[in-house]
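Troubleshooting log. The previous structure file for this entry was overwritten by mistake, so regenerating from the original sequence record. Sequence copied from the archived sheet and checked twice against the printout by T.R.
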Amino acid sequence: MNDFVLNGSQRVLMIACDESSALSVARALPSGGMLLVMDADHEHGAAVRRTFADAGVADRASVIIGDPARMLYKIAGPFDLIVCDITDPAGDTLRAALTKLLAPTGRLVKPTGIGPDPVGLALDKIAKLNPALNAFITVFDDEARTHPGEAGPLHGMPISIKDLIDMKGVPTTAASRARAGHVAAADATVVERLRNAGAVIVGKNNLHEFAFGTTSAESAFGPVRNPYDVTRSPGGSSGGSAAAVASGMSWASIGTDTGGSIRIPAAACGVVGLKPAYGEIPTTGVFPLSVSLDHVGPLAQSVGDAWTVYEVLKGSPPSLPKIAAPVSKMRLGKLGGYFLQKLEPEVRRRFEEALDRLKSAGAIIVDAKIPHSSDIALTYARISLPEAYAVHARSLETSPDGYSEGVRARLESGRDVPRKDYEEAQKHRETLRAEVDAALSQCDALVLPTLPIAAPKIGAATVTIGSSEEDVRPLMLRLTQLFNLTGHPAITLPCGLTTEGLPCGLQLVGRRDGTVDLLRVSLGCEPYVSPEISRGRAHAADPDPSRRAKGEN
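Regenerated output below.
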């Protein structure tokens, strides 16, 4: 179901429609939406009901089996959208009954009004948009169109994966010339789980080389570009994943996060990005960057979609229903000091406005602190750099020219970190972990911005905040890297746009091993933090920045 057809519809009634169309509608519903399917055929209705259960959407999609003409009186309207093919002699009577159930601005459409299948739609968008956005390194057009996927919670959904993750028989380039000639011998565990859940993998996404950067500008395949403005970075290192989801080239994408590489690009591209708790998602078959910091997780258009993909990646059965934590009973710890010192003014305003909306809904916002926050950046560097160098030491010695200059220099700097500094950093890491635990002890989640700046210009080495000139890379890592050190789950939600039309992100952090609780909190917060998602936001699909600035699509 494409966004044009739903057009923000919250309550949808479908009568005698095929399973695939009904499932597409259920998945496309905005947060808080509801789908009701009516089917006179007992066997077909039961099959649709099973499809909803298998796909994990039974919390928002249900089936009534019986003759619609006799059952409509039991249905409580109004509906924003009713999908029904009225062609039989009793059509006028049925149309009159359905019209009474429509909201004043509701629409009655035929099943032919339903858009193309999700995989075909995604592949068509890749063909149209990828030449400008450069979000994909490899596209599986023929295979994806002819293999509908297994039955399961992701049946028929187009998903892309960061080209750091192995797919059997396909190169894993890591966006580097140093990987030339590599072909994966087996699927990564997460790819195997995606396939078993019915996902259709449409391609492998471009990234910052070896996931060692925050802009996705250093890549053997050229820079990834932001769908909101192609002159700007999509963030990194999972920049291709974020650009693909934001532009509708994939329904969801799988990225990696070592210092913020899921959350940074998700914030820069206006989508949801989840870094689960450390160790929850297997990294087998994922090329490492820093083994004690690496995480795998989903990027998606909504919290609900990210939650569904997270369950698949973890190997958990679908949770039914996915219950949002009530905002009126929510207590959030706002991190101040270090975490709010270096913010672009508009990023600060969007963050504070989102907090105001949460407070208006009844959330209690309290101050929280990390006493040793000034140690975060150095602790992170002294752990990540030597671990990354250890992965690449042999390749750097035998084929240094295979690396881009900036990535090679950062990797080689890890060689110079003394062992005692690495060991001392691990002690600081435990201190920071305990401090995050303490900050969470009196609240449901911590809240802070995700990215201190809106998406920077491609190639920019510095940005200006106030009267200060800041280096882009450490600034982009500033608010996310702590939670890689501590292993706490963290998620970013879009929280509005700057006056230039660039997305901003709000980050929520949960207790260790509390990813599901964090998702419940995030699902509750989403209508207030990201109201455009609840209204059925259109994709950032036009790669022409002059048109996007005018709000054209």
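The mean pLDDT is 90. Archived copy saved in two places this time.
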